[in-house]
Amino acid sequence: MTALDPALLGALPELFLALAATVLTMVGPFVVDSRRQWLTRAALLALVAALALVPIAPDGPVFGGLFVVDGFAKFMKVLVLGATAWTLLIAEEGRQSASMRAFEYPVLVLFSAIGMLATVSASNLMSLYLGLEMMSIPLYVLTALKRESRHAGEAGIKYFVLGALASALLLYGCALLYGFTGTTAFDALATTLPDASPLGAAAGLVFLVAGIAFKLSAAPFHMWTPDVYEGAPTPVTAFLAAAPKVAAGALLLRVLFGPLVGLADVWMPAIAALAVLSMTVGAFGALRQTGLKRLLAYGTIGHSGYIFVGIAAGSPEGLHGACIYLAVYAVMTIGAFACLLAMHRSHQPFEQVEHLAGIGRRRPMFALAFSTLLLSMAGLPPLAGFLAKLYVFRAAVEAGLFWLAVVGVLASVVAAAYYFRVVYVMYFADGDEDFERVPGRRITWTVTATAVTALLFLVVAPVVVEAAARAAGTLGL
Amino acid sequence: MSTWPILSLLVFLPVGGIAFLALTGRADAQNDRNARDVTLWTSLANLALAIVLAMRFDPGQEGFQFVEHAVWLPELGVAYHLGVDGISVLFILLTALLVPICIVASWTTVVERVRSWMVAFLAMEALMIGVFVARDALLFYVFFEAILIPMFLIIGIWGGERRVHAAFKFVLYTLAGSVLFLIAILTLASMAGSTDMDRLAATSIPLEAQRWIWIAMFASFAVKVPMWPLHTWLPDAHVQAPTAGSVILAGVLLKLGGYGFLRFSLPMLPAASAEFVPLVYVLSAIAILYTSLVALMQRDMKRLIAYSSVAHMGVVTLGLFTASARAISGAIMQMLSHGLVSAALFLVVGVVYDRRHSREIADYGGLVHSMPRYAALFMLFALAAVGLPATSGFVGEFLVIVGVFPVSAVFAACAALGMVLSAAYMLWLYRRVVFGGVPGGAPLPDLSLRETGMFLPLAILVLWLGVQPAFVFRLVEGPAAELAARLLAAQTGGGA
Fold first, then answer.
1. Å from B24 to nearest chain A CA?
2. What is the pLDDT, as a whole number, of residue B495?
3. Which among A15, A269, B170, B368 has the fewest CB atoms less than 10 Å away?
């Protein structure tokens, strides 16, 4: 074996994961059913190893400038890999049916993770597109992995068709930008865009942003989210909701605050409009939902709106706020879906809000943890979600976008209404439905750990805020 | 200065109680008893601590005392900054006194999910005291808004038949107000570069900005007070809340709005406050007169007292926005007095509710025959609510009227008319419940030792503050004079 080319050291986590995923793909078919869990363990090990490699990778461009490794990429990679590993960990206990135990599951997760890492590090329109596709295609397959479920199949097709459309839009945007500037490299774009035709550049920007907004499930590109969240098997939904959102959010930040920062006057109002739409659609859409997964789907739409509030500020504070929001969002989402996974019942699903009636009495600790996570998502102090919202609103206020901040907080009141509704069903309503105990402790520990994080976040907040500030600082601006 | 962090201790002692409760095992009769004991002793220890704080507090000294400061989120300018002045000390005492009384009041009436109940109350205590000691705007906000969660559970789990409606109305009303307050804090912070309340008060803000910030803050505090026409959540919340919940709601939570005016609107935005005085006056006068008339018409005892609270808080807001040290001290006195008296009145209702399970006035009558001790205590608190001299209720209302009179005789007359109306509805309530014919059913037993015990401290304090209000004024005259001077300067300075 020859030594690795030092110029490739920056892509060490990606290369390692790719190697691991390839090996698992080849070994996978030969592993008998009873040993399948070893595949998942190996995949987990690979993810953790890649996580450990992230800080080691030296900063700088890789692959002739297609990739870049900087503090921002590292921050986001830690989030992405952490979220991927964590959701894979809890998925193991949540995957009950035979088709869900297929060896492809951990392998697809690994491939998607490689795509996410590439997305986060992209510094060229080509690698941007490649990364996003590599992230998305395994997700489409994962959504439809539960073959015996028609819902999963429907969700998979829907996700794929709409996702392909979004990819096409994105690619069209890339093509326009290339056509008007003659380059696909981010740093070259930054210097040539000011001289390019403003209309052409703006058109490219709009398509590019629309494509990424689809991945972030921001309104009006959110239509797929509730159906896919509901149709996909819950372990997949958990994965889908956490890591890819962070990757797409990171990509949007990198593009807007990097090469397209010169067009800030164009994209700031557009992002603000997306923020308003997403926050209101998320808040009002969730009010009428009876299914927990659909409710969380609308929650996600709302959360992307809050991230956009930070971005719309177009300032270092906004970038910082969005980074914090992504980090908090990932942890809260994992916690909430771990709660959903914990509510397992073999004969019929336990996914309706009304099923929770009386859980507060029968399972007080679980209800407490779930409520904490939900109210944290609602942004109530002193929980974690409050601090995340605080930072994005602060960015909006400092940028003079008072109206956006006011719309945002009012939307968060509406959002609080539906989060409180779940809490109310758990504690105030009477019911006798119950779920079975999930074997194993991973889900229980995840629920506990995330709820405690949400509760005590203000204590550890300075560390997270500082890390996000360092990450945001390396993005230039 | 004190060498040990007494303010942090006051905030975190109840949290320690919660941690202890969380460690107890399954919910059985033994553990429920233990939970009650632990909570009572924790809250009594906190009361003792609050008394120590009051004794060691030096009213002669200017500014804030027992200051604790630790950097928290430096880049936002947020710090863990605590401190108390005379006003805070009084409200801390009020909170620390009412919580053990609530625990005693719910000793036998709350039998379901006892441990959760106790946790909710200790959490409330920690957060309420947190509001009163916070010297950082963001810290204040965290405490201020977090109170919603335990209160939502207290109304929603242990409340009456329409508790869900009431709990949601309470949360959404208050939340809608307070999120605007958050925007106001962020705007102020972006101007001052810090969320430290001393820094914010020292920053001069352009009048145009002051107006918007003032309105955003007003949305929050006016809902909390509550001021007419934002008061409609209060009767629902009070009627549906369990007795102890009503006590803490009327006793402390309603004071948070007034306290917010004292800490934010008045010192930080004096020019805007001066401009909006007419608005506050008109809303207060409507609150006093209109809700008093509404109170007259109520058939539900708790609803009647809830409306009377709105009227009494109208007097408070009238006093707070008057550029006179006398009126502001009077308003603070009125807040304290209302905290004691309305808490006691909700306990009074709770006592008969526990016996007959009805809040309808028509279901009662002639209680004086079977419950003489109860009748006597009820009389005392009813008269204090009316504002009879020698009770705490008189001192506050009188000072507010005296303070407002030179500014506007009309509004002073409104406040005075409010006192007359309060006599009408309180005494009529008293006559119908305590005297008159007995409506059948077994005679109700008189107050037990436990119930007498929870009324006694309130009764003593109501009388003591009525004849010896100097204790309060010694603590509040400094800060009140400063606020009045600020407001006066803004009024005469043409809004500079």
1. 13
2. 43
3. A269
> Judging by beta carbons within 10 Å of its beta carbon (0-12, 13-18, 19+), is residue A371 exposed, middle or buried?
buried
3-class SS letters over chain A: CCCCCHHHHHHHHHHHHHHHHHHHHHHHHHCCHHHHHHHHHHHHHHHHHHHHHCCCCCCEEEHHHCEEECHHHHHHHHHHHHHHHHHHHHHHHHCCCCHHHCCHHHHHHHHHHHHHHHHHHECEHHHHHHHHHHHHHHHHHHHCCCCCCHHHHHHHHHHHHHHHHHHHHHHHHHHHHHHHHCCCEHHHHHHHHHHCCHHHHHHHHHHHHHHHHHHCCCCCCCCHHHHHHHHCCHHHHHHHHHHHHHHHHHHHHHHHHCHHHHHHHHHHHHHHHHHHHHHHHHHHHHHCCCEHHHHHHHHHHHHHHHHHHHHHCCCHHHHHHHHHHHHHHHHHHHHHHHHHHHCECCCCCCCEHHHHCCHHHHCHHHHHHHHHHHHHHHCCCCCHHHHHHHHHHHHHHHCCCHHHHHHHHHHHHHHHHHHHHHHHHHHCCCCCCCCECCCCCHHHHHHHHHHHHHHCHHHHHHHHHHHHHHHHHCCCC
ipTM of the complex: 0.88
pLDDT digits (tens, 9 = 90+) for A201-247: 889 999 999 999 999 999 889 989 999 999 888 889 999 999 999 99
A 363-422 residues inside an 8 A Cβ radius of B: 364, 375, 380-382, 386, 390-391, 393-394, 397-398, 402, 405-406, 409-410, 412-413, 416-417, 420
Dist. CA A292–CA A286, nearest whole Å = 10
> Which token pair is A81?
């890999």
What residues contact residue A463 under an 8 Å CB cut-off, 6+ apart?
none
pTM, two decimal places: 0.91
- State the DSSP H helix or E strand holding residue B82, giving kind and residue range, or none if neither: strand B78-84
Q: Do A420 and B116 touch (CB under 8 A)?
A: no
**Number of C-beta neighbours around residue A20 at 10 A:** 22
At B293-308, the pLDDT tens digits run 999 898 888 999 999 9
A427·B163 Cβ contact <8 A: no
Closest CB from B152, B163, B186 relative to A397 = B186
Whether residue B125 contacts residue B95, with contact meaning beta carbons closer than 8 Å, is answered with yes
What is the pLDDT averaged over residues B258-271?
A: 91
Radius of gyration (Cα) for chain B, nearest Å? 22
Share of chain A above pLDDT 70, in %: 96
Q: Please, what is the angle between helix A71-94 and helix A36-53, to 10°?
A: 160
Instruction: Assess whether pLDDT exceeds 70 at residue A273.
Output: yes
* Dist CA A78 CA A326 (whole Å): 12
Please measure the distance between the N-terminal and C-terminal CA atoms of chain A and give it in whole angstroms.
42
Quick one: which H or E segment has residue B313?
Answer: helix B301-320
Q: Which residues lie below 8 Å from residue B280, measured CB to CB, with a gap of 6+?
A: B227, B317, B318, B320, B321
With beta carbons less than 8 A apart as the criterion, state whether A134 and A118 touch: yes
Q: Which two tokens stand for residue B144?
A: 């201020």
Q: Which of A381, A393, A427 is closest, CB to CB, to B157?
A: A427
Separation of alpha carbons B476 and B472, rounded Å: 6
Is the distance from CB of B394 to CB of B388 less than 8 angstroms?
Answer: yes
